[in-house]
Design brief:
about 650 residues; mainly alpha; Serine Threonine Protein Phosphatase 5, Tetratricopeptide repeat; 2 domains; five-stranded mixed beta sheet; two-stranded antiparallel sheet; about 5% strand; elongated
Length: about 650
């Protein structure tokens, strides 16, 4: 295309009015606000009903909500930001303002599920209202598209999911949406309040604060040539500085008083545990960012988002202010901070969910620009608006499909957490004494329902452990710490911390063979926790066995034995690998070594009894089974095998 023709197309595009004019009055806006709130409630409540019908109880798909609930319950009862009665005061809540809201809920009700669901859905509803307000500001005369993309936000599969997950996420999204709206409207006082609350919502909110600074820098820079760009007055800046500054100072002062640091314990603990040295930055970008934000309806939204970013960059080269700067800057800043400091988006991409509303809005703006470009090229307003309508309708329809599909995930994950954390917590409450102290890494449900004092081996509420978590000898240091702390029981997922040479008192009932929660009596000098390195090696070996890579699995297990020579479990797993290879000599040698280290190893006794039975050594098999049934009289596989051996003996007689 010649330069002259291109200029003609550009001029033609500029002369055509592509807008779909719709400007609702106050009455209709109030109807839209009400509809957004009702739809948010209905979509979230539907997830609850599906999960209740499937599981027979209410739960959360994460363990973390009970951390908020424990702090909130103690704040309401003892007026202390503590994790056990009025003891253990600490800055262990990532979102203290959310914890305060939940504490207020405990003044009205003792039902922790109702309180959590109420605030999650409430903030989802007001987030929907403010999303509409913000998108209405951007689609000033095309409010129809503001309504459509508000519907996309409400139908988003993760918004309903997280609103009934007991987390602060919808509250945080509300705070940043409100801050963005009042910032765009240049309403100094409400903007100052919400800007100050951002850190109270989540410490990673600093990325949104930075995005506002970037946006305002360009707005101020380009305002010299564009008088339509509205700025804050000097008086506005004074108000913002005083109000927001005071709110932020109180936040830092509270953390400093509770834990001696400006930020919550959770920030330091998670930065330590999920440090880039132990998590892959490239995998984070590939799986937790790219795959997450290009699957399902997000794949369509990505087209509009990418185009809006390209348009923004083009405008910047022309020294033209683009309204998308704030949204794009926040999305990229949030991803960058996690990539650089903590390459982990947590389960369901929870840490990146605050970017979702801004990706949706930015995508809507991108599709609007793309439709104008297409309409200008085709010299047709109808084509431009038709493209925009079709694109937004497809996104909305796909979003509802994804929403409907995700309800099953919500129900399954609620059951997953209930079967492990909640049931374990109730067992601890029923089978331990009130003065017992429990060490665990999942402090949520166990801390809330067991009503026992907790030692958090992951450091979220036990900050003195944080600096040692990634030490190679951490488990040795940990056991010394447990001794000094008077710990009497351990509750560990095997994948996190593995206790060997000791049978658990309780093991969670699991419908899927992933993440078993064990409870052990902690006996100083006897209880043995293997190193995280050795446990990781064993887990890799088990994965290889599942994929029938027996020889490679054995090599890993030999490495684990070298790391932990007194680990009976490593010998047990390597014996199993040899059994799969039909190497009976090495199977027997290693399983007997496991039993030599730990004579009461129930799984090894059963496995060896089965082998002895298969080789005709029935007397030896009976001896192992008798020992196993002494340890666990109700062991059904052992009972069945012993009965089979007894019947065989009688038949021979």
């Amino acid at each position: 295309m010649s330069k002259k023709r291109a200029q003609e197309h550009k001029k033609q595009a500029e002369t055509i009015d592509f807008s779909v004019v719709f400007e609702p009055d106050r009455k209709y806006k109030n109807i839209i606000y009400s509809a957004a709130a009702v739809i948010a409630f209905a979509l979230a409540y539907y997830y609850l009903m599906i999960a209740k019908a499937a599981n027979g109880y209410y739960s959360f798909p994460l363990d973390d909500p009970w951390i908020h609930l424990t702090f909130a319950k103690n704040l309401a009862r003892y007026f202390s930001f503590s994790y056990f009665k009025n003891e253990m005061a600490t800055a262990g809540s990532t979102s203290p303002v959310y914890t305060i809201f939940v504490a207020i809920g405990f003044l009205v009700s003792n039902n922790e599920m109702i309180i959590s669901y109420f605030f999650g859905i409430l903030f989802f509803a007001v987030s929907g209202i403010f999303f509409y307000k913000l998108s209405g500001f951007e689609f000033a005369k095309e409010n129809f598209f503001a309504i459509v993309f508000t519907a996309v936000f409400l139908a988003d599969k993760w918004m309903s999911f997280i609103s009934v997950s007991g987390m602060e996420t919808t509250m945080f999204i509300f705070i940043i949406l409100a801050a963005a709206y009042f910032y765009k409207k240049r309403c100094a006082i409400p903007f100052a309040v919400f800007f100050g609350l951002i850190l109270w919502g989540r410490p990673d909110g600093v990325t949104f604060m930075g995005a506002i600074a970037v946006d305002y820098f360009f707005a101020h820079l380009f305002s010299k040539n564009n008088k339509e760009i509205k700025l804050f007055s000097k008086n506005d800046f004074v108000k913002i500085g005083i109000i927001a500054g005071a709110i932020i100072v109180v936040y830092f002062a509270m953390n400093l008083m509770l834990s001696g640091s400006l930020l919550p314990n959770t920030y330091s603990a998670k930065l330590t545990y999920y440090a880039p040295e132990f998590k892959s930055r490239s995998d984070f970008l590939k799986y937790e960012v790219w795959d997450y934000f290009t699957s399902g309806a997000y794949g369509l939204l990505a087209v509009g988002f990418i185009f809006s970013v390209l348009k923004m960059l083009f405008d910047l080269t022309k020294k033209k202010y683009n309204p998308n700067i704030l949204y794009a800057a926040f999305v990229f800043a949030l991803i960058f901070v996690y990539w650089f400091k903590l390459p982990y988006a947590h389960r369901f991409g929870r840490y990146l969910m605050p970017a979702i509303p801004f990706i949706i809005l930015s995508s809507g703006l991108g599709f609007r620009e793309l439709s104008k470009l297409l309409g200008g090229f085709m010299k047709s307003k109808n084509i431009a608006n038709g493209f925009m309508i079709i694109a937004s309708a497809l996104i909305l329809a796909y979003s509802f499909v994804n929403y409907n599909d995700n309800k099953k995930v919500y129900a399954e994950q609620c059951a997953y957490i209930h079967d492990r954390q909640v049931v374990t917590a109730l067992w601890i409450k029923d089978n331990t004494k009130p003065e017992d102290i429990i060490a665990t890494h999942d402090v949520g449900a166990i801390g809330f329902y067991s009503e026992r004092k907790i030692v958090d081996v992951a450091g979220l509420i036990t900050p003195e452990l944080i600096t040692r978590i990634n030490d190679r000898d951490y488990t040795k240091f940990l056991m010394e710490y447990l001794n000094k702390s008077g710990v009497t029981y351990l509750a560990f997922l095997r994948e996190w911390y593995r206790v060997v040479n000791q049978n658990p008192l309780y093991t969670s009932t699991n419908k899927t063979p992933v993440e078993y929660m064990d409870v052990f009596k902690y006996e100083p000098g006897k209880t043995y926790i293997i190193s995280k390195e050795a446990n990781s090696i064993i887990l890799m070996a088990q994965d290889l066995l599942g994929r029938k890579n027996y020889q490679q699995a054995i090599q890993y297990l030999q490495q684990a034995i070298k790391e932990e020579p007194n680990c009976s479990y490593a010998y047990y797993v390597i014996s199993y690998a040899y059994m799969l290879m039909k190497d009976n000599v090495n199977f027997v040698r290693n399983i007997k070594k496991a039993l030599e280290i730990f004579p009461d190893f129930k799984e090894a006794l059963l496995q060896l009894a089965a082998f002895e039975k298969s080789t005709g050594k029935n007397d030896e098999a009976v001896k192992h089974l008798d020992r196993l049934l002494e340890l666990e009289p109700q062991n059904k596989p052992a009972q069945d095998m012993l009965k089979s051996l007894t019947d065989t003996t009688r038949t021979k007689k």
